[in-house]
What does this fold into?
Amino acid sequence: MAEHMTKAEWKRRRKRKRMIKRYSIIGTFALIVILVLILLIKFISFLFSGNEGIIKKAGSHKIKEQLFTVSDNNRPGQKMDSVKGIVIHNTGEAGASAKFMWDYYENLSKNKSAAESVHFLVDTDGTILQCIPCDEIAFHAKGRNSDSIGIQYCYTNSEGKMNDKTYEAMADLVARLIKEYDLTISDVVLHYDVTGRLCPEYYAENSESWQNFLKDVSKKL
It folds into this structure.
């Protein structure tokens, strides 16, 4: 038997159906807007995040992207969970250029004689090369490879001290990385502080010069 409704009941039911339909349309529209906003936020984050660990500029220095071939001996391609520190190295050989060191590390992917690498190389003319994305592991400091960025600078003097151009580029790069990964100046250490190896020897043996460098980095933050 057909349900008998009064006119008032029929109007209430019809009104309820219209409201349900209206809310469904509003809900669908709101969901579309939210999804578009999420995609927009991800796109903007991608543009300004350094392109997945690639740093384009540090202060006035443009950074040249020159990545190593992925291999077990220089760039394993393994992601870091997070960046918790910056470790400073030098080449250990006066006169070794960034190109020389890049070639050395790159060739490890072929001859597999050792497992070594760094994220950045800084030359004596202030040129900065990025060799490994900052969100990937590099083989630069045993015990800190999984959570730190390794920077190696070149030098020409017998002391192993940075010249003015290298010093300025290093300070700009370290400051940029501190900002990028929400670190503090105390998170910047020497290779010596991690392993006890005298690297870089000049700054490991000249604490005042090292502290002055950190002060100059702090001025850029």
Observations:
- DSSP finds seven helices and seven strands in the chain.
- The chain has two domains: 1-48, 52-219.
- The mean pLDDT is 90.
- Helices lie at 7-48, 50-53, 98-111, 164-180, 191-195, 201-205, 207-219.
